[in-house]
Amino acid sequence: MAAHVAVSIVGFRNVPDIVRCLRAVGASTYADYEVIICENGGEAAHAALVAALPSALPGGQPVRVVLAPGNLGYAGGVNTCLAETPDVDAWWVLNPDTEPYPDAMAALVERLSRGDCEAAGGVLLTPEGTVQSIGGVWRKWMARAVSIGNGQPAAGPFDQAMVEARQQYLSGASMMVGRAFVGRVGPLRHDYFLYCEEVEWCLRGLARGIRLGFAPGARVLHHHGTTTGAGEGARARPRLPVYLDERNRILLSRDCFGAALPVIALGSLVSMLARFGRRRAWRQLGYALDGWWAGVRNLRGPPPWLKV
Q1: What DSSP character marks residue 129?
Q2: Where are the domains of the chain?
Q3: Are 122 and 102 a contacting pair, CB within 8 Å?
Q4: Which CATH architecture is the domain 5-222 placed in?
Q5: From CA 123, how far away is CA 116, in angstroms rounded?
């Protein structure tokens, strides 16, 4: 089944990442798509990105860059991409720090076209040549996302039936959602700003009867955290990713499992203390506690101290 796809990318003053990503997208074996980019970094960043990118890829696919009215975060940026392309058949949400393999888009479209799922993910690979994720499981009582397949050899093989039976969310670094998904589930929660938004989106979808697929041939290299610093080691990780990761675990628990929030929040706190404590990442533990407490108090959107 043919499907017109909007490759949807959110940028934040990271022109080199997006140039590299689009170079890979332009080599796709699947040709029926357009590219929409939401730049969250302001007018100067928008102008720099427009100047650096072609108006169309080598196959003639148009490239459009939209200036966000402010820093909308990742969720808000993706929602802007959805709103700007209302007539497409599917959206390929793709991180700017990724490089999809040529057959990745075709594999995702083929998986959706079977009609037994409304969204699909693939294989995320690290630059070191191992698997980062082939799907995800949400551990409710610890408020923790766990990547299926993490650390496995990149060559596979990958058990599609096992992944589809286990997975509860798709990685926001590369996920394709169809019109039925967006129509039934709605947009991402923009008040998360950054982190956990794709997990909540998928959990909300599962609660509404949405099915998640897995395309083993959809291989995507993920450089991870080039914009936020989330890829750094525990003791070097910046304030923003630590704070938002911990806060949004609690917000997700509140939104999806509200009755169990007191127990979940306590379990999350114990887990956090252990994770940062055993690494002696005391500064990051302070960031994490601040985020956890913000989640308990139901504080949303960009952190009050963030210069957006």
Answers
A1: S
A2: 5-222, 234-296
A3: no
A4: Alpha-Beta Complex (3.90)
A5: 19
